[in-house]
Every structure is written in structure tokens, then in C-alpha cells.
Amino acid sequence: MMLFSYFNKLRWHITVYKYFLGKEKSYQSQEVPLRDKIWLWQNGFNSFSKRQDGVTRSNSHLYLDTLRYKKYHRRYNGLFHKAIDNKALLPFLLPENLIPEDYCIFKNGKFIGSNVEIEGPAEGYLKKKMALKPFIYKPVYSSLGIGIIELNQENFNRVLGFAKAKNRTFIISEKVQNQAYSAKFFNGSTNTIRFHLMRDPATHKLFIYDTIHKIGTQKSTPVDNWSKGGCYFHIDKESGKIGSGLLKTDDNKIKVITHHPDTGIQITGIQIPGWKHKVNNLLNELNKHIWLRYTGIDAVLTEQGFKILELNSLPDLDGLQAKKPIFSDPQAAAFFENAGVYPKQKRESVKFFSFFG
């Protein structure tokens, strides 16, 4: 039993460190001196933590580090963390008005379910629908925009054949259309809004810690993910006004922007229409689902309200603390402390090579 526990803990630590090293690799830069990098690594941070979030030796106790964030992943949503990350379960977890229409699930190339009634072969149903509106294919377990394809009549059979050959579970759903304001920025991607939500342990109500507008670029099309070359802009969570944005350049530097890098359209300062009313409606709906304690929601703002494309049980921490460190916010600090993750002055600092401390 002790040997099993040892290897299970070793396996989990290897997973955590692979996650950490992957983050460091994606943000490596000569802007951060090696001496500072070593200090950051020893304390569970990566280069981005200093470059964008502003972590220093004197203020690091206010920040949640990348290593512990991943290490305690299972505590944030308890046994529901796997269900949250399973995109096939979205129609079963959330009410119909919050998810896309024609949400069809396939496994090993065979149709196994949908949120609409389908008579006859699902492939024929979808091909008819594709003549009327765009559709998206995505694997159930994917992140960072990997494997997402915009479907059409020409590539449908090829994509479906690929899914059958790989014995994968995947989803085909309508491509939700954003409001006109967003399409003006760049129309080659969905341009989703990411909500970073936590449930206050005192009030048991969800609150927004941070929210950003992800905007695609010519480099990232058809997705808007930062990792694929997209950019993102902070949104004032109270007013819905878009603030400054960030773009990672080809030489791996972080550039502050106010306009779209391809279209030249100004984004900073734009007011998102109907923000307060539609955000309140979203939170009211999600508050009914008490099992949802911590998530990053990718949503599209339609004329009718928000449509949720996916939930994430471990939303990206990088850049989240650029405006405000986690432990400087009373509500966010209360959430993580309730999960057993404390500011570092209450616990020993994370040591990069300490597996079993």
C-alpha cells in the first residue's frame, strides 16, 4: 500500500511539473535574467509571472503560484472536475438556453446523442443544417484550441472519417454567432469572452474574478486562443468596457495593444452592449448549479444572451493576476484558502525540486 501511494504521488508530481515546464517553455524570453528565472522556478512561478503579472521577491506572497495552482486542482470542484472538462456533458450540466443548438456527440465515428431530436442518420441531418449555418468540430478533451475545425460541405466527410479512424469522442455543434460589435474587430474567429468564476464560501454565490475578450487574428484563425496567435483584452467586469490588450509577438515578447493587429480596428474603450443585464442573467442561471465552484467559461454574447461553449476546471492562471494578485482580493483569497491553498507566508515556499515536501 505504501509503495502504491509513493508511485501515485510521484506520477501526480510528474504531471504537475510537466504542466509547469510546458508553461515556462511557451513564455521563455531573454527579458527575464537567468538569476530571476531560477528564483521564480524555486517558488513555483514562471517567466510570465514576472514579465506580465509583476511578481517580485517582495510581493510574491500575494500571488498564487503556477505549481500549487495545478497541484491542488482536484480540490477546487471536488469530484465534478472531470465532468466540467468533459465537453460532451455540457448539454446535461447546463440549461438549454445557455448552450449552442444542434450539439451532437459522436464516439468512434458513431452518433450517440444530441440536445435536439434527430430522425434518421445524424450525418444527413447535419449536412442539411450546414447549408443554413456554420458548424464547428472539436474533440471532447482538448484545450488551447487544438483540434478545432470549422466544418463545411466539402470537408465534412473527411473530418468524420478522421474521427472514425482515431476512435475519438468528438462534438459537432453550431458555430455561435457573436454580436456585430465583435465581428467588426475580426471576423475570422468566434471571439469568445472568458469569465473566471469562483464561488464565495461565505455567501455560496458565484462571483467574477476577472474577464477577458479573446480576439482571433490571421495567425490564429479559426480560433481565438492566445496560444495560437490570438490576442486578448481585459474587460471591466462591472461596466463591460474593454480595456488594454496583449499580443505575443513572433520573437516571444509581450506587446500591449489598443487596436487589432490585423484590421487596425480600435478595441480598447469599446462598450460591450447589454453587458450588465446579460451578465446578471448568466450568473443567476449558473448560481443554481451548486456543484460548480470554480471555472473558466468560454462564452459568446448573442442578441439573446450568453451561450457557453465550454467549461474549464483549471482555467489558465497566466495573465489572470496582472491586474490584481489572487491573495490581495478578499473573495478570491477566501475561495483558495477554503480549498487549502494559502498565501506563502502561511506555508513554506514551494521548492521546484521538492517532490515530497
What does this structure look like?
- The chain has 357 residues and is an alpha+beta fold.
- It folds into three domains: 2-76, no CATH class; 101-174, ATP-grasp fold, A domain (Dna Ligase, domain 1, 2-Layer Sandwich); 179-334, 2-Layer Sandwich (D-amino Acid Aminotransferase, Chain A, domain 1), CATH 3.30.470.20.
- It contains twelve helices and twelve strands.
- The protein has helices spanning 2-27, 34-42, 47-51, 66-71, 73-77, 81-85, 90-93, 122-130, 156-166, 180-185, 275-286, 330-338, and strands at 104-107, 110-114, 135-139, 149-151, 169-174, 193-199, 206-215, 231-235, 242-248, 254-257, 294-301, 306-312.
- The strands form two sheets. A seven-stranded antiparallel beta sheet has the order 10-9-8-7-6-11-12. It has a five-stranded antiparallel beta sheet with strand order 2-1-5-3-4, with helices on one face.
- Strand 1 and strand 2 form a beta hairpin.
- The protein is globular and about 65 Å long.
- It starts with a helix and ends in a 19-residue tail after the last helix.
- Mean pLDDT is 84; it is low at 352-357.
